[in-house]
Amino acid sequence: xxxxxxxxxxxxxxxxxxxxxxxxxxxxxxxxxxxxxxxxxxxxxxxxxxxxxxxxxxxxxxxxxxxxxxxxxxxxxxxxxxxxxxxxxxxxxxxxxxxxxxxxxxxxxxxxxxxxxxxxxxxxxxxxxxxxxxxxxxxxxxxxxxxxxxxxxxxxxxxxxxxxxxxxxxxxxxxxxxxxxxxxxxxxxxxxxxxxxxxxxxxxxxxxxxxxxxxxxxxxxxxxxxxxx
Length: 229
Prior knowledge:
The chain is α+β, with helices and mostly antiparallel strands and 229 residues long. The protein has 2 domains: 4-87, 3-Layer(aba) Sandwich (Glutaredoxin), CATH 3.40.30; 93-210, Glutathione S-transferase Yfyf (Class Pi), Chain A, domain 2 (Up-down Bundle), CATH 1.20.1050. Helix content is 54%, strand content 6%. It contains 10 helices and 4 strands; from the N terminus they run βαβαββαααααααα. The chain has helices at 14-25, 44-49, 72-82, 93-108, 111-116, 126-135, 137-157, 168-183, 189-200, 202-214; strands at 4-7, 31-34, 60-62, 68-70. The chain has a 4-stranded mixed sheet with strand order 2-1-3-4, with helices on one face. Helix 1 packs across helix 8 (168-183) and helix 4 packs across helix 8 (168-183). It is globular.
């Protein structure tokens, strides 16, 4: 049997995007199980995840024997353990440690970017981004730090991705790429070029195409729009 990856709406679910893109990029087979976000009374989202993961959240990776792994970073580590023949993390020990470090930094930090600029792939909001950039010092600091770590990694590896070949670190920053693109946040030339290369990657493109086809509306994830049009 094929493992299952439980995810939320592709348009909004940044945490789901990370392991999905990683597995797709490395050709790891899985069955996608979409659990649309639904946070109202009698939430179907919560009921559908009962018995799948005690966290009650997406993403969740479930092996064919029912063994579940939840949390995006834990899932990526699980895939790396299950597939040592694939270089999900860089082969070089120091590069691998650095890739894990910057992924963990994203996992635990950049709260202003994540709260002020939620992932919304179908929405283009450069005017919102311009206003937020002018008003929110915390956002500017988050973007500057990400730009710095991207630029350092790219300079050290020679690109085209953070550690040369596409890795779990790139998958981990895929939702950040979407935020920068949709909100039009200013970046250095090196970071902006990386955003373009990431959007052209086949696994990222596949996720974006599916997100654009969803055409679903989740009010809780729409701080800046009152409708889809």
